[in-house]
Amino acid sequence: MSELAEQAALGSGADFWTTKQVGPVPAIVLTDGPHGVRKQVAASDQLGIAENVPATCFPPAAGLGQSWDPGLVERIGTALGRESQALGVHVLLGPGINIKRDPRCGRNFEYYSEDPFVSGVLGAAWVRGVQGEGVGACVKHFAANNQEYDRMRVSADVDPRTLREIYLRAFQRVVAEADPWSLMCSYNRVNGVLASQNEWLLTKVLRDEWGFQGVVVSDWGAVADRPAAVAAGLDLEMPGGGAATDDDVVVAVGNGSLDPARVARAADRVTALATRTTAAHREGAEFDADAHHLLAREAAARSIVLLQNKGDLLPLDSSKHLAVIGEFAQQPRYQGGGSSHVTPTRLDVPMEEIGARAEVTFAPGFSTDGSGDAAALREDAVQAAATAHTAVVFLGLAARQESEGADRADIEIPPEQLELLTAVVAAQPRTVVVLIHGSVLRVAPITIAPAILDAALLGQGGGAALADVLFGAVNPSGKLTETVPVRLQDVPAYGNFPGEHGHVRYGEGLQVGYRWYDARELPVTFPFGHGLSYTTFEYSDLVVDPSLQARVTITNTGTRTGREVAQFYVSVPGSSVERAPRQLVAFGSATLAPGESATVETTIDRADLAYWDVRVDCWLVESGEYVVSVGSSSRDLRGQVAVEVTGDEFRLPVTLESSLAEALSDPATATALGGLLSATFGAELTAEAAGTDLAVLLGALPVGRLVAFSGGQLTRAHLEQLLTAAREG
Ligand code: BGC
Question: In this record, what's one Pfam family (predicted)?
Fold first, then answer.
């Protein structure tokens, strides 16, 4: 093989999960990810859907994100790294940190949040954990992959500021904070160009601006034109099997359409990853399945959100008879469908776990596949509820309703489940709902139940975790990472999702998630960041010093030990650009005994105050007052302080296209231009006149257009000269 042919061969997989061994460069194994290791039992099949080796199924991101606990996510990363070592995996394909732009996206269960800060912080923690064990992370899917519909072709049409501030920001944070060894480009186009062939994305932004050093891997089958992808900055096309695209690379170099240096560069990066991960591989490594199961259970409990708890119905009294209703209590739904589907090492069943702690009658209540007599199922359940002390009703979506590859048409809880709940609540006012789902549902109809636990998807330990929370062994502390809207028509991308004819327009711009509901002052069923506890907390003494260190005291004012996640939001009331009414910039937590107080301290990263300025293509921090609020949710704010921030030195150069107002407000040009104006037009147009009606009117005039109004006194060359002289000084 020629050197070029070897380099090309390194850049595509040998099969579904393995890279090629080329000369001294070893082959490595990449596998899914993100909430468990999906290692196939036998040699790879061509579609990657064969049976998997059992591995711990931790809570998928939809659940785990609700923990708001980077330490926990990092511990799970460590466990995943150990399982990868034991199963011979060199790169684990995760974390998924795409933004949940719309609740209908079929793959939201694999992502953390509608907010880039939470997604970035938790994603970085996952990477640190996995890579700490010598296994590469592969952050995905880069970028703007926010729907499943037409995912392999659709162009996400996003304005540059929104792209930077919302859709790229979590990736930027993970690259900066955790140095991932690889990153997966997405299937879709970004502003018309396939992500796999997008030089702006893969090279200019990712490498030149952010300094990413790792390997860019394609999503499986994302490459349409390998030479174009290599030229753009793609290093490894997956999967593989034939040499067809390797030959394309060799031919493209031969005919001069591809720079050989780019092929060599990609090969070097793949070589570095293969060398690094095989050197870190621990032959004969094992993992402790029992300890990992306990970690999965702990994480599941921390991921549960107490949405409402009227009359302190929860926690339950284990001496009382319960009716447990709903198929999901017996046939748990604990992960989403598609490439992330893990074969668990074991599975806790909620019904068994609840049954082990209290006397229980079970009734299925409904079927998830339309089988059975709905009225009879309902009647049995109502009967069980009426005769019990409390009813616990498991509702949610079936596996086939939430999977990679398809979006949902609505956000409804199935109508037969709502009918069942209405009947149960009528017969048994002491009713608790446990809601199982991978992405947001319209929850308003189930608020007829006094208590609701949002169980999202909890992984293999979810059954025991639910029992722990229901009976109070664990006090819930999860918080929503996605807003629960009142209705689908209110969601930010409504009307712009999932697009048509190959394009999806990100028409809501920056106002994604809670930013949107807050900007429009829309009511929501449960806000971003919401989550109750069996105890209560008071906030006091919020302080934010000029170095952006923030501190708040939290006191447990209730009767049980509990953990509170304090969220810090920033508003920029005097901003010169559009801003969200408030934006999450930090969070921290404290676990407190009854009566205990503690200070939650955190640093707000100055970079998180910046906006992306499209005029100069860079981040800018404005000078002025920033209002920092602290809250128990984005709509339950408990304190606020203002802090003065000195912004970045920034001045747009005054040109003939600058408006008069801009030119007159720039000290470098104001005097010279003011003098010229008074000499040419009279005193009323000088800088001193700014604020008068005439000045406002003329202020919008580009400087160069003065020529047309000068009666022949001015030329563009004259103005140009004046500006240059003024700028130079
Ligand atoms: C998914 C990726 C996954 C890959 C390998 C693709 O369909 O989008 O997230 O890692 O398959 O299974």
Answer: Glyco_hydro_3
Mean pLDDT of the chain: 95
Regarding whether 247 and 309 lie in a shared domain, the answer is: no
Show which of 250, 280, 310 is a domain's final residue. 280
State the distance from the centre of ligand 1 to the C-alpha of 338, rounded, in angstroms: 8
Does 219 qualify as catalytic in the annotation?
Answer: yes
Q: How far is the CA of 339 from the centre of ligand 1 (A)?
A: 5
Strands (E) in 304-450, as ranges, are 305-309, 322-325, 360-363, 390-396, 431-436
**Which tens digits make up the pLDDT trace of 110-123?**
999 999 999 999 99
Angle at which helices 289-303 and 462-470 cross, to 10°: 50
Instruction: Look at residues 472, 407, 409, 465 and name the one whose alpha carbon lies nearest to residue 436.
Output: 465
Question: What pTM value is reported for the model?
Answer: 0.96
The answer to whether residue 312 sits within a structural domain is yes
pLDDT at 48 over 70: no
The answer on pLDDT for 402 being more than 90 is: no
Q: Is residue 90 part of a domain?
A: yes
Ligand 1 cavity residues, CB under 6 Å: 32-33, 48, 93, 140, 219-220, 339
CA distances from 255 to 4, 116, 231, 241, 258 (A): 13, 43, 14, 25, 8
Proportion of the chain above pLDDT 70, given as a percent? 97
Q: Residue 44: pLDDT above 60?
A: no
Number of domains in the chain: 4
Measure 292 CA to ligand 1 centroid, in angstroms.
24
Distance CA 307, CA 299 (A): 18
Ligand 1 atom at minimal distance to the Cα of residue 339: 12
Catalytic residue among 102, 115, 157, 219: 219
Q: Is 47 exposed, middle or buried (0-12, 13-18, 19+ CB in 10 A)?
A: exposed
